[in-house]
């Protein structure tokens, strides 16, 4: 299980993730969708780092 609580990420003065809370359960498949610039790749990079 991956649990994210109150994740905030900014680039200069732009918040791309603001107090984000997510739980990814083992054995399930998830899709992260949203418009360009909404923080999808940033979220995946943060998860990959940890």
TrEMBL record:
Instruction: Give the ABC transporter domain ranges.
Output: 17-47
Write one Gene Ontology MF term: ATP binding
**Record's Pfam families?**
ABC_tran
Sorted alphabetically, the keyword list is: Transport
So which domain of life are we looking at? Bacteria
Protein name in the entry: ABC transporter domain-containing protein
* Taxonomic source organism: Xylocopilactobacillus apis
